Task: inverse folding
């Protein structure tokens, strides 16, 4: 498995845990890595996704809500909601990751960890975000 794919799957697990059992966000990754050892570059990218997603969570949730037609965020499956969250973070805030890669990875993770229809749902929402929302890359 590719390192970034593995990092995304770990980020999903951390965000899912945070979503269902809110704790101080700083403690989660450290606790997670104690029981799920991974190579440093995998931990680093997963931590970046978790930190960035949680730092921008209010804005990310607003963007997802805007494009998830007929779906309220709290009514979505928790796995789908958190895949959409970290993928939206990647799309809007990480310039070095091509949008096509972000969407493809999110769809594959949704197919692996969620329901049968989740891949299409995640694809549809992220595709709309990708083609409509302005990027929020940090100035270099």
Result:
């Amino acid at each position: 498995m590719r390192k970034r794919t593995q990092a995304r799957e770990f980020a999903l697990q951390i965000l899912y845990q945070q979503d269902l059992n809110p704790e101080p966000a700083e403690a989660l990754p450290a606790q997670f890595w104690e029981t799920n050892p991974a190579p440093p570059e995998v931990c680093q990218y997963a931590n970046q996704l978790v930190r960035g997603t949680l730092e921008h969570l209010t804005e990310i949730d607003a963007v997802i809500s805007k494009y998830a037609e007929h779906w309220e965020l709290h009514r979505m499956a928790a796995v789908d909601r958190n895949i959409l969250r970290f993928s939206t973070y990647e799309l809007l805030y990480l310039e070095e990751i091509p949008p096509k890669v972000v969407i493809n990875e999110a769809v594959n993770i949704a197919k692996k960890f969620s329901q049968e229809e989740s891949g299409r749902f995640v694809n549809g929402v992220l595709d709309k975000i990708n083609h409509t929302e302005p990027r929020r890359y940090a100035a270099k």
